[in-house]
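User: Can you write out an input/output pair for a complex, sequences first and structure second?

Assistant: Here is one pair. Inputs:
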Amino acid sequence: MSPARRNRTSGGEPNSGKAVRLKDVAAHLGLSPTTVSLVMNRSPAAKGIPPETQDRVRAAAAELGYRPNFIARSLRRQRTFAVGVLLPEISEGYAAGVLGGIEDQLLREGYFYLVAGHHSKPDLFDDYLQLLTERSVEGLILVNSPIEQALALPAVAVAGHREIAGVTNVVINHEMAARLALGHLAERGHRRIAFFKGHAHSADTESRWQAIVAASADLGLEIDPRLTLQLSGDAAGKEFSPEEGYREGHVFGRKLLETGARFTALFAFNDVSAIGAMRALTENGLRVPDDVSVVGFDDILSAAFQNPSLTTVRQPLHEMGRRAAAELLRKLSASGEDSPAAITIEPTLVVRNSTAPPRSDA
Amino acid sequence: MSPARRNRTSGGEPNSGKAVRLKDVAAHLGLSPTTVSLVMNRSPAAKGIPPETQDRVRAAAAELGYRPNFIARSLRRQRTFAVGVLLPEISEGYAAGVLGGIEDQLLREGYFYLVAGHHSKPDLFDDYLQLLTERSVEGLILVNSPIEQALALPAVAVAGHREIAGVTNVVINHEMAARLALGHLAERGHRRIAFFKGHAHSADTESRWQAIVAASADLGLEIDPRLTLQLSGDAAGKEFSPEEGYREGHVFGRKLLETGARFTALFAFNDVSAIGAMRALTENGLRVPDDVSVVGFDDILSAAFQNPSLTTVRQPLHEMGRRAAAELLRKLSASGEDSPAAITIEPTLVVRNSTAPPRSDA
DNA sequence: CTAGCATGCTAAAACGATTTAGTCCGCCCC
DNA sequence: GGGGCGGACTAAATCGTTTTAGCATGCTAG
């Protein structure tokens, strides 16, 4: 039908109208494909080929516009230079941020990646894992994705749930995060601090809470159980909806007031719940930061746009993705048998306008 | 070295420890690879093979855990079932939203995609285009990416700049957007409306502005040039930084006040500039929406979290991505010679708390 | 009795590279 | 004069499929 369909080549015919193959370059030069391949790949075996010939080959390749076919090369070399990325949902801020870092690193190193969003459904996760494997990805990066069994491929997890043999976890330094946030508040004179704990099934909840307990002890702060609310979330998967996080923060902000217990600051589990709580507080006549200081976690984009803008612990998502990708590539290269079980990333505190010293009469 | 390296197979040897190949299944059954392939692919040519044999083949494949090698298949069939996506920066909200829709559609149809972020640098764009082509993607989706020349592959653009032969553009219905926003304001009694125009080099600026002019005429609204500010942005590439958009909105909000011209509403070019402007207005003693109503564009996540929450024209990013992907797949399938030059997507108005009737004395 | 035709398969050639194991030629040197 | 060697290449196998073009075999019909 179409002109491109009209190629009845067999052996090494001219093959016009289609992409130039190695064979075409070879024929053009009156050389064998082997020679051309050797030269183009700067193979060590090409040392026997005189420089003039090498130049001729490269000139011809350039002239004809030869581009090696990656698929054929992959088949032969058993390398695809591609990795798979599994995440709950690509358009969600956390994953998108991490993915940005992953991409930077991978493209820089000549790799591409295939992404699949499993929407926190275990069977979708399994399906995509299967599909990625069939596509011969060389390794996996799991973002915010729980895994149960060991994987057949080298893998790195970002915000992974549990420890799995052979999977390196990229995690935020929760101790540092807690010290930063609580230190900031304590420095300004806050003693009665309320907390939102994360959802029970979220990866970071437990370690973050332990870090908070430890940091509080260090700073001589007491944790009042009445001021400690555990975000409930809904069924799995819903935890990633910002709207819901916001609503929850709103509800829990109100709950905090209803306890009647006094507090001058709130350290929320994440920015969206912090934002919801800020709204609840102001709606109830409290001013942020004059009456209550609020610290979030993540530094999502809207944190800076709040009124007041939100002081928060920033997770360097891009950096986390970058490190995850770098570590995976290290695992893929021959050298790395000795892969660490965890890579710790340091958070930073972004001080904005939602925190201030407590009023002297508070 | 490693046990996996120890496969000196030639012909059809057992091949233990490695992935099961078609050949292995065939050998296991005492049949030829041809037969197994025909059966596994439910090829029409398999009608000559009796059902019992077919069952035997499928049973053996299942038992041995046979998974076809996608690379080999791609090479032979000259199909990769992969498309390339080019965008400025993956972690940015607009692109991430669109990408979510692209993914949904592609994975549903058995495709994967390779993404590359060119950071608005033309040479990076060209490089990645080249790399994607080498990887034999079957088509391209361009998100917010200017193209100059025609492309060698079937392509669909989302928020594409100009019209290129053969490239279908997925665009928002700007007329509808203008009618929704201005109608909403006019209905509530606003007559003096200020505007932020987009950056000169942004794709949507011109068509959106024309739509605004048309809708204003229809509604009997006059456009005051003093109240029409063109966002300047910086060099190419910077237009995508939300921080800058915000800062610009902030500056321009103040400028608007300095003109001395009276206005009761502002229709911003996007949400971030609307948010910046809201901040500037409140800082100058004006209340939103009591003194000035503000309408944004995009409905980014933080729009809902503002105080007051932002009324805005929502671009259904997910839907736009989905449609783009669907159209590309249609182009790829034999049927579609008749591809439209544009696909128009309908925006919706999300009414929140940044708009209200003007004060009667305004 | 045999041409013809299903039926149930298979051999072998692609796809476009990489890589192992040579080949051929000329020259040197004893 | 011939063994050895280095230089410049190349033939052919291979990666794991798909697909075209047949090949036996047995039955039926004329």
